[in-house]
Structure formats: structure tokens, C-alpha cells
Amino acid sequence: MAISKYLQKKAWISGKTVIGIDPGKDRHQAVVIDGHGIMKGKPFSFGVNQKGFNEKLWNGIRMATEMDKPEDTVFAVETSCNLWVTITDYLRRQGYTVVLVSPLSTHHARPLMNHDFTKTDPKDALLIASNAQNGNYDHYREFSAGTKRLHQLSLTYSKLMKDRTRMRMRIRALMEVVFPEYLKCIDVCTETSLYLLQRYFMPEDFLRMDIKNEASLIKKLSRNNYDESLLYRIRKQARGSIGADKTDERDVLRLTLDSYITLYRGINEQMRAIHEKMTEIAKESVYFEVITSIKGIREGTAARFMGECRIYDELPFSHYKQIEKLAGLNLRLNQSGKHVGARHISHIGNKRLLNLLYLMTTQVARHIPEVRIRFLKRQMQKRHYRKNIVACISQLLKLLTSLLKKKRGYEYYPERMKEMKELEAEYMGFKVA
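^ thats the sequence. predicted structure below, dont judge the formating
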């Protein structure tokens, strides 16, 4: 299947003039090759501005070759960072066909030209055009407005998650210096903890704390998860704290901690707003109810999955292995003659989707027989939680793809439930032994 698709792409682009573009921040580099792969004229560059797009680009092409009809001309653009987006959008609006070449293809093609890894913009532009002509490209795809909105929100949510984790680590790092024992009493970034840290943060602060007054407040704040026993534990730890003496820096540290807490809370608020909007958009798709029908997949997780895979008004995948490959979970085969080497995960893919699939599988593997059975069998062979969860991702994707194709919700089957319960009993005995 992969070879036939590759040959189709190669046949489609055969005989066409290909213009390879290596995107840059200030200037793009371009090279023109004819249908036989011969470079026409000289490489040229054009600015990333209105004059560069409207004049320099077309003048450079005319100096290299006569402009063919749009249907006989293909622009090949390398998808480096987000530098390719503006030029691709411009060319599409001009009526030209655009194909996308991976930076990985350019990297591996460099030594093929002159047996070294020399990197220059003209060389890369030529390699981009040559790779496209050899069929090593992906077609540019247009997505609906809903798909693009959902995808953008999913990206933003993931980036905010990184920022929130960074703020969390900074708060922890500061407390590890001034009052390390505090971290043993409570999770540093719960609402209760953030409230306490805004009022007290050094050991001597907690020693002067009015426990009775604070206990009633944190009970309400934590919905009765914490009471005065927490405050007594913190005070006990404060009496014997080994925290560094930072009295002379107290005002500076107070300002620093307040800044971190404010940023952390601000990120949380933005994430909640994005979560609501993302879920609202995802609910407009018929696929949302299908995904959330699987116990363990929450609404926000389902919306993020749809955004990363661009599932909205149509299903862009015909096989679950396509989603595996997008996430970098496909296996690299090593086979020659009678030799069959070890198979390893490629890890070349969308890391956000990979992390999301892992999260989804950890939840689904507790409830859904199709995934739980495989997890239990692997655990009884060799107990390794993370590896066995990763191995179960394919089971979840098989189930999801099947349900999405049929557009129907998940249903439990009695025979599978019976098998799962039998394995659960066997696994409990295995754990005790």
C-alpha cells in the first residue's frame, strides 16, 4: 500500500516544472527544475514581504524559465517550523498547486549530492525540488473552518500546559530552598497550597499562623479535603525546617513567588476558557459522541484528540495505523533475507498526540474489555506498566477507528466482559504471588 501510494505521487508530479522553496525568517530561497530534474537558471531569493512575494518571486522564475500553466507547475515548500505557512497560503490563493516536503527528507538527502552534509540555502532549495519530483512529498490539504479552529485550540492548550508545568516547577524550586519540608505536606499547586503560599511561605511565617481562623477557610476552599490537621503538620515541619536563611532576600522572594502564583493561576484560567470553547466546537461534530461513548475518555480529552487528528466533519484516516504513524508509534522494520531484526518504535511524529494517546489509554485500560484484556495479559507476562500501556494504544486506536467509521457509540459485549473478569481474578492472584 505504501509503495503504490509513493508511485502514484511520483507519476502525478512527473514531467511538471517544480519550484523548490526553502523558507526563512527574512528571505526565502528558490530553485526551478524542469520535468527531467535539470535546474533552470540560477537559485534566487526573495524577501518575506509584499514586494518579495508579488515581484521578486515571479521575476526570478521568469529569468529561470518560461512560466508554464498553473496546472503544469508545482511549488514544493519545506515545512520548517511555521515559516512555510504564509508563502503556501499566498501560492494557493494564486491558483498554484503546492506540495510539502519534510525537513527530515532534506536532511537525509544532503550527503547524496556531494557526499557531505554541507548545508546552504541554495542547496536545500534544490534538494526540496528534487525530493518532490522523486515523490517524497505530501499533498497540501485544505481543512474546514471547524477543523482548523479545533486544531488551533488544541495546539494552544498543549502549549499552555507546558507553561503551567514550568510555573509549577519554579514554585517548587523556590520552596525547596526556603522551606523544603512544606512539599511533603501538600501538593504545591493545589488551590489550598496557593492560598497558603500567598499568605505565608517561610517557616517562621507558618509558626505565626492563626490555625483556627485559617482552618475554616481552607475547609471551604478545599471542599473539606483539608482541615486543621494539615496546618498542624506544616507547623510541625516548620519548627525543624532545614530551609536556607533568606531573611535578607525576603521581599524579593515574596515578589518572585507572587509572580509565579499569579502566572500559574492566569494560565489555569486561560486553559479553562480554551477547554470550554474547544469542547463546544467539538460537540458540533458527529464524531464527538462516538469518542466520548468509550468510558474513560473525557470531553476535553476527546476534543483534543479530534483537534490533533483533525477529525471534525470527515474522517481523515482509513486505518488505525495511520494515526499510529502520525503519533510516531509505527514500528521500524529490519528485515533482509532470512534475517528479521528487532522492531522498535520510530518516535518520529506528533509528540502532543503521543502523550494524549498515552493518557487516554491509561484511563480506558481500566474499564474497556478490548483494551483491559490485552493489558492484563501483558502484565502477567512481564510487569512493566508504561510499556504495556504503550502496547495497548493500538487496541484503543483499532476500537476508535472502527466506531468512527460506523459512527456509532461503544457497546459492551457480555463475552468480553466475562473474559475480562476472569483475567482480573487471575491477575489478582498473580499480584499476590
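The chain has three domains: 2-139, 149-279, 289-432.
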